[in-house]
Design a protein that fits this description.
1122 residues, mainly beta, Immunoglobulin-like, 8 domains, 16-stranded mixed β-sheet, 10-stranded mixed β-sheet, 87 strands, extended, Choice_anch_A
C-alpha cells in the first residue's frame, strides 16, 4: 500500500523571494548583491532536482559543453564554455521530449542562465545557438540570462533578424546567438520594458544564479543528499532494496520492485550492464516508486545504461552520486543513458548519446550526443520516519499439530495517524506455527506507516476444530504505536486458548438364535468386552467392560469405567475399537456365531458430550455333529539335507470321477496339524469322507525320496484313487490320526587322509608330532567349506570332522582339494615338498576316498666337545693325563645314549666321536678327580662348567663346546675337642654331628668322647658349617644348649644350630664343643646331680669328674671335601 499520512514538502518560495528582495531594497537602492533565503528543514516527500530550478542542467560553478546539442535548458553559477568549434544548439525538442516547460528568470522564459560567457578563448572556442526550435508555445521560447554585465572580450551585436549576438569583435567565435531577443534593446541591462540578456540581480554570479535556481527547491542539496543516504540504509523502511535477479553480463534483470515507495539498487550490483530490465510481473518505476541507482563514495567512473523503451522510465530514474566528491565520469559512450544524474558535490562529466534526464553537479562537462529534458518527476520520503508492524500467533492448550494443515487465524487491523486520519485497514492471516506476518502493499512488499501511527487489532472468530473449544483471544500489546525511538518493526502477539471436548460410549448386548423360539437357559456369567482408544494425538489407552448376565440373557448398557467406578471419557476425535475376546461356554448343543456390532466394532467420538450407543449381538447357533482328522509328519533321512524339505498334505471332500476342489496345508516334522473344517470354513459334518494325499516335497535338494506312506493307527493306507488320494471315513466325535512317513536317502561320501614319511630321518621323527592337512570342499551348488585334519606320522588314517568331532560326509559330486601348509616347526628338521595322492577327489555315493600325504624327513646333525681348564695349578703340576667326563644325550624322540670322554689335562678338546640330531640335549658330569694327582697340601675345589653342564644341539652350530674348570687349592687342618659338663660318661661315648664345606652336601659324623677330631685337608679359604645332632641320653639328666668356641671365643649358632668356621688361619686347631647335663629330678643336698635308682648320692661313674676336667675325644679322622 502507498505510505499514508505523508505530505508533499514543497514550499511556495516566490513570496519568500519577494520578501528577500524587499529587504534588499531597505538596504539601499544602490545595493549590488542579493541572496535568496535558505530553505527550511526538509520534511515530507521531496524532489532532489527541484534544486535545479527547472533547468535541465545545473552547474553550480562552471559548465563545459562539448556535446552535440541540448534539448532543454542550462544554468551555470560561474562560466559557460563551448569546448569544441562546432555549433552547440540549445533547442526545445528534436528527438527527445517536448513535454516540459522551461523556467523563467525575471519573468522571462530562460534557456541559459549563466554567470558569464567564459572569457578564456583558449577553452571557450565554439558557438552557442539558442533557437528554441520545436517550441510551440511562447513560454518555451527561451532567452539568454547572464549575471555579469562586464562582457570582458566580448561585445553585443545584431545578427540575423536582429537577434542578439555576443561575440568577439567582428563576430569571431566564441559566441552566443540569442535568437529570442532583439538587438539593441535586449542587449542592455533590464529596464522593466526589455527582455534583457542580463539578470536583474547582480553580484556574486554563483550566489545570484543559486538564488534564482534554488528558490523553489523542496530541500537543500545537503538535505536531499541526507535523505538519499537514509534511503540507502538497508535497515530502513522508507525504501525497497532491489537486487539483481538475473545477470547476463551486459544485460541485468532486477528483482521485483515495490509499487509504493522508492526502489534502491546498489550501483556495484548493476555495474557493467548496458541494458537494465525488470522481472516478469514486477512493478516498474513511476512517480510513486522511482528507481534510484546508489553510487558509493570514492567512485570515479560510472558506466551508464538504458532502460527500454526510450523515454518511458527516464523521468523516474535517478543516478545518486550524492556520496561522491571530486572528479567523476558517467559514461555510456555512443549509447543512451536513461535517468537524471545527481552529483551535487562532484565535478561530473556526462558522456552519452543521448542523456535522457537532468544533471546537477559542481562543474559539469557534457560530452557525446544530445541531452533530452526528461525532468526527474518523482519524490523521495525525507524527514518523515516510517515503520511497520508484525503480528504472530501463540497457542495455549492446543498445538499447531492439532489443527488441520494450512489453518490460519484472521486478524483485522486499523492504522490511524496521530491526527486521527485512518491510514489503512486490512486483515492478516496468522499461521498457527507462530511465524510473524506484516501488512503488505499491493505489490507484495511490506507496507510502512509514519512514526506515531497507532495500529489496533481485532481477531475474527477462529475456525472450528473438531474436538476443541476456543476461548477468548487476547492481543498484546493492543494497540501498537510506530515510534521514532523504537524498532522499525513493532510486534504484537495474538494468543488463543483451546480446550479439548470429550465424549464416551456404552455397550448393550443382545443374544439371539435368529428365531422367535425361546432361548435355552442362560448361564449366570460375565461377558467381557475389550476396548482400545486412540485419541487425536495418537495416544493409546485400553480396558475392558464387564457385561453381567442375570440368567435370562438380559444385559444392561455399560460404558468404560476406571478402578473407582468413575465414567471414562475421551477427547472428541478419538477412535474406539471394540472386541469380544472371551465368550463363556455356550449352552449345550450350541456354538457362538460371529458377533455383530452396530454401528460397528470401530467408531469415532465426533462431538462434545456424545455417548455412542453400541449394540453387540451374539448369535447362538445349534451345533451339528462334527468330525476332524490330524496329520503328523514322520521323516527318516539318512543324512543332512540343505535346504530343509517342506511337506504338505492335500485334501478334498469331492469324490473321484468329477471335478475336485482341494486344499493344501503345510506340515512340519513332529508338528501335527488338525483339520476340522470343510474348504469353505464350515465344520466337517460327522460321517464325511475326506480324500488325502501328499504332494511332492519341496527343498531337500539331492534327496532320493521313497513313496510316502500314509497310515492310521500304524496301518498303512492302500488303494489310492486315480488321483492318488486315499479315502478316510470321519465319524461323529472322532478325530482320525493320520501319519505320513517320508523316507529319504541323501547320496553322500567322504575321504580319509594318511601320512607317509620317507627320507633319512623318517625313523627319527619325535613322538607326538602331527601334520595339519587343509582341505577345501566345493559343493555341487557352488558353495564351499573347508577344514584341517591332523595326521599322525605313524600313518593312521583320519577323516574330516565337525566342531564336535563328528565325522563329516559330503554330497555326491563334491570336489575336495588338499594342501599341507601346517608342517611341524622343529629346529633343524625339513619336511620337503609334500606329495598328495590323489590331489583332488570327487565324492561318490557311499564311498570313502583314500588320500596319502607323503613327506621326506631330513634333520641337521651336530656334536659337542669338552675342554679342561685348570686354576691354581699348571698342567705340569698334575700327575694325571686327563679327566673322565660322563655324558648323557637325550634325542628329540626321547631316547637316550651315554658315554665317557677323557678330557686331556692340557686343555685340548675331546668329543664323543659321533653326531646327534638337532634338538638333542646333552648332560655332562665330571668324575671326581683324586687329590693324589696334586702336590701335597693341595686339594680340588668344586668344578665349574661353561656355559653350563647341559646344552641343546642347535641348528647351524655344528660343534658345541663344554669347558670344565678344576681349581686346585691348598689345605689346612681343622681340630675339634669334645667337652662334657654335669655328667660322668665313659670314653668312646659317641656324639653325632653334621657338617658341610662351602654349602656342599651335608655329611654325618661321630664325635667320640676322649679323642680330638682332626681334619687335615680342609681347603684353605673355604667355609665349614658344623652342628651337633641329638646327643646320647643320660639317666636323670637332660642336655643344655651346646656351646661352640674357637680359641676361647664363643661361636653363635643360627636358628638351625649351625656355626660357621672359616678355614683361613691356625685357629682351626682350637675349636671346642661343650655339652652340659642338667638334672631332671630333685637332688640330694650338696649334690649336683639328681638321685638315681642306686639309692646313693654319688654317680657310680666316678670317671665323670675326670671328664669335667676336659678329657679330649678324638673323632675318627675324616677327609672333608667339597
Amino acid at each position: 500500500m502507498r505510505r499514508t499520512g505523508s505530505t508533499t514538502g514543497r514550499r511556495t518560495t516566490s513570496g519568500l523571494l519577494a520578501a528577500a528582495l524587499a529587504l534588499g531594497g531597505l538596504v539601499g537602492l544602490g545595493a549590488q548583491t542579493a541572496t535568496a533565503p535558505s530553505a527550511a528543514a526538509a520534511e515530507g516527500d521531496v524532489n532532489p532536482f527541484t534544486s535545479a530550478g527547472g533547468f535541465t542542467v545545473y552547474a553550480q560553478r562552471d559548465a563545459f559543453v562539448g556535446n552535440q546539442e541540448l534539448e532543454g535548458s542550462l544554468a551555470a553559477g560561474r562560466n559557460l564554455a563551448r569546448t569544441t568549434a562546432e555549433q552547440w544548439a540549445v533547442i526545445h525538442v528534436a528527438a527527445g521530449t517536448a513535454d516540459y516547460t522551461i523556467p523563467t528568470v525575471d519573468g522571462d522564459p530562460a534557456r541559459l542562465l549563466i554567470g558569464r560567457f567564459d572569457p578564456d578563448t583558449s577553452t571557450n572556442v565554439g558557438e552557442v545557438n539558442l533557437t528554441s526550435r520545436g517550441a510551440t508555445t511562447p513560454e518555451n521560447v527561451g532567452t539568454l540570462k547572464m549575471v555579469d554585465r562586464d562582457l570582458g572580450p566580448f561585445e553585443t551585436s545584431a545578427r540575423g533578424e536582429s537577434w542578439v549576438r555576443v561575440s568577439q569583435p567582428g563576430s569571431i567565435p566564441p559566441l552566443i546567438d540569442a535568437t529570442a531577443q532583439t538587438y539593441p534593446a535586449d542587449a542592455e541591462p533590464p529596464t522593466g520594458g526589455n527582455t534583457s540578456i542580463f539578470t536583474e540581480q547582480t553580484g556574486s554570479t554563483q550566489d545570484v544564479v543559486a538564488g534564482y535556481i534554488e528558490a523553489d527547491q523542496d530541500a537543500t542539496i545537503d538535505e536531499s543528499a541526507q535523505c538519499l543516504a537514509d534511503l540507502a540504509d538497508p535497515d530502513g523502511q522508507d525504501a525497497h532494496h532491489v537486487t539483481v535477479a538475473e545477470d547476463d553480463g551486459d544485460r541485468k534483470v532486477l528483482s521485483p520492485l515495490a509499487a509504493d515507495r522508492p526502489n534502491v539498487v546498489a550501483y556495484e550490483d548493476v555495474a557493467g550492464a548496458s541494458l537494465l530490465q525488470f522481472s516478469a510481473g514486477s512493478a516498474t518505476p513511476g512517480q510513486e516508486n522511482p528507481l534510484i541507482i546508489r553510487v558509493p563514495a570514492g567512485t570515479t567512473d560510472v558506466h551508464g545504461l538504458r532502460v527500454d523503451p526510450q523515454g518511458q522510465y527516464s523521468p523516474y530514474i535517478l543516478w545518486d552520486l550524492s556520496a561522491v566528491t571530486g572528479d567523476v565520469t558517467v559514461e555510456n559512450t555512443g549509447a543512451r543513458i536513461d535517468g537524471s544524474v545527481y552529483a551535487p558535490f562532484a565535478d561530473v562529466t556526462v558522456d552519452a548519446a543521448p542523456l535522457d534526464g537532468q544533471v546537477i553537479g559542481r562543474d559539469v562537462t557534457l560530452l557525446g550526443g544530445e541531452v533530452h529534458s526528461f525532468l526527474f518527476a518523482s519524490t523521495i520520503p525525507c524527514g518523515a520516519p516510517q515503520g511497520t508492524f508484525e503480528v504472530s500467533k501463540e497457542l495455549d492448550g492446543i498445538t499447531a499439530g492439532d489443527l488441520p494443515d494450512g489453518t490460519t487465524f484472521p486478524v483485522d487491523w486499523s492504522a490511524t495517524s496521530p491526527d486521527g486520519e485512518v491510514l489503512g485497514t486490512g486483515t492478516l492471516e496468522l499461521p498457527a506455527d507462530g511465524a510473524p506476518v506484516s501488512p503488505l502493499s499491493v505489490d507484495g512488499t511490506t507496507a510502512t506507516f509514519p512514526v506515531g501511527t497507532v495500529v489496533s487489532f481485532a481477531e475474527q472468530d477462529p475456525t472450528d476444530v473438531p474436538g476443541w473449544e476456543w476461548g477468548d483471544a487476547t492481543v498484546a500489546p493492543d494497540p501498537v504505536t510506530i515510534t521514532a525511538d523504537g524498532d522499525a518493526v513493532v510486534s504484537a502477539t495474538v494468543t488463543n486458548t483451546a480446550e479439548r471436548t470429550e465424549g464416551t460410549f456404552e455397550v448393550t448386548k443382545t443374544v439371539t438364535d435368529g428365531t422367535d423360539d425361546p432361548l435355552p437357559p442362560a448361564p449366570e456369567a460375565v461377558i467381557t468386552v475389550g476396548w482400545t482408544a486412540v485419541d487425536p494425538d495418537d495416544n493409546e489407552s485400553s480396558g475392558t467392560i464387564d457385561l453381567v448376565s442375570d440368567g435370562a440373557w438380559d444385559f444392561q448398557a455399560q460404558g468404560p469405567e476406571d478402578d473407582d467406578g468413575n465414567e471414562i471419557t475421551f477427547p472428541v476425535g478419538t477412535e474406539v475399537t471394540l472386541s469380544e475376546p472371551d465368550l463363556p461356554d455356550p449352552p449345550e448343543g450350541y456354538t457362538w456365531g460371529e458377533p455383530s456390532w452396530s454401528p460397528g466394532a470401530t467408531f469415532t467420538i465426533d462431538r462434545t458430550d456424545q455417548v455412542v450407543a453400541v449394540d453387540l449381538t451374539n448369535l447362538l447357533v445349534p451345533q451339528e455333529p462334527t468330525a476332524s482328522f490330524t496329520v503328523t509328519k514322520v521323516l527318516d533321512v539318512d543324512g543332512p539335507v540343505d535346504p530343509e524339505p517342506q511337506f504338505a498334505v492335500e485334501y478334498t471332500f469331492d469324490p473321484p470321477g468329477g471335478p475336485r476342489e482341494s486344499r493344501t496345508r503345510e506340515i512340519g516334522v513332529g508338528d501335527p496339524v488338525t483339520i476340522d473344517t470343510l474348504l469353505d470354513g464350515e465344520p466337517i459334518p460327522a460321517g464325511s469322507t475326506v480324500w488325502v494325499r501328499e504332494p511332492a516335497p519341496t527343498g531337500g535338494d539331492g534327496v532320493d525320496w521313497e513313496d510316502p506312506v500314509l497310515s492310521v493307527d500304524g496301518t498303512p493306507l492302500t488303494d489310492p484313487d486315480e488321483d492318488g488320494f486315499y479315502p478316510l471315513e470321519l465319524d461323529e466325535g472322532q478325530t482320525i490320526a493320520l501319519e505320513v512317513t517320508n523316507v529319504g536317502h541323501v547320496p553322500a561320501g567322504s575321504f580319509t587322509l594318511a601320512k607317509e614319511l620317507d627320507g633319512p630321518a623318517a625313523e627319527d621323527v619325535p613322538d607326538g608330532l602331527t601334520f595339519g592337512v587343509g582341505w577345501t570342499a566345493a559343493y555341487p551348488d557352488g558353495t564351499t567349506t573347508e577344514g584341517t585334519t591332523e595326521l599322525s606320522p605313524d600313518g593312521t588314517p583320519a577323516g574330516p570332522t565337525d566342531a564336535d568331532g563328528e565325522a563329516l560326509d559330503f554330497p555326491v559330486g563334491t570336489t575336495v582339494t588338499f594342501d599341507e601348509a601346517d608342517l611341524p616347526d622343529l629346529p633343524g628338521w625339513d619336511w620337503g615338498t609334500p606329495t598328495i595322492t590323489p590331489s583332488e577327489i570327487t565324492v561318490g555315493d557311499g564311498e570313502t576316498a583314500q588320500v596319502t600325504v607323503t613327506n621326506s624327513a631330513t634333520v641337521e646333525h651336530g656334536t659337542f666337545e669338552v675342554s679342561k681348564a685348570l686354576e691354581g695349578a699348571d698342567p705340569g703340576d698334575v700327575s694325571a693325563e686327563g679327566f673322565e667326563v660322563d655324558w648323557t644325550a637325550t634325542l628329540p624322540d626321547g631316547s637316550t645314549t651315554d658315554g665317557v670322554i677323557q678330557a686331556p689335562t692340557d686343555g685340548s678338546p675331546a668329543g664323543p666321536g659321533r653326531e646327534f640330531p638337532v634338538g638333542t640335549t646333552v648332560q655332562v658330569t665330571e668324575q671326581e678327580p683324586s687329590d693324589a694327582v696334586l702336590p701335597d697340601g693341595w686339594t680340588w675345589a668344586v668344578p665349574t662348567w661353561s656355559p653350563g653342564s647341559s646344552l641343546t644341539i642347535d641348528e647351524g652350530v655344528g660343534t658345541a663346546t663344554f669347558t670344565v674348570t678344576n681349581s686346585a687349592v691348598p689345605v689346612t687342618t681343622l681340630r675339634v675337642e669334645k667337652l662334657v659338663e654335669g655328667a660322668d660318661l665313659p670314653d668312646g661315648t659317641d656324639f653325632p654331628v653334621e657338617y658341610r664345606v662351602d654349602d656342599g652336601p651335608v655329611q654325618q659324623g661321630d664325635l667320640v668322647l676322649g679323642e680330638p677330631f682332626v681334619a687335615d685337608d680342609v681347603p684353605l679359604g673355604t667355609t665349614v658349617e658344623i652342628r651337633e645332632a641329638d646327643p646320647p641320653g643320660v639317666d636323670g639328666a637332660r642336655w643344655g644348649t651346646p656351646r661352640w668356641a674357637i680359641d676361647g671365643q664363643p661361636l653363635e649358632p643360627d636358628d638351625d644350630g649351625w656355626v660357621v668356621i672359616h678355614a683361613d688361619d691356625e685357629r682351626l686347631n682350637a675349636v671346642t664343643l661343650t655339652n652340659t647335663a642338667r638334672p631332671t629330678t630333685p637332688t640330694t643336698p650338696g649334690s649336683e646331680l639328681p638321685e638315681t635308682g642306686f639309692g646313693g648320692g654319688t654317680l657310680p661313674l666316678l670317671a665323670l669328674g675326670l671328664l669335667l676336667l676336659g678329657v679330649a675325644v678324638r673323632l675318627v679322622a675324616r677327609t672333608l671335601r667339597a
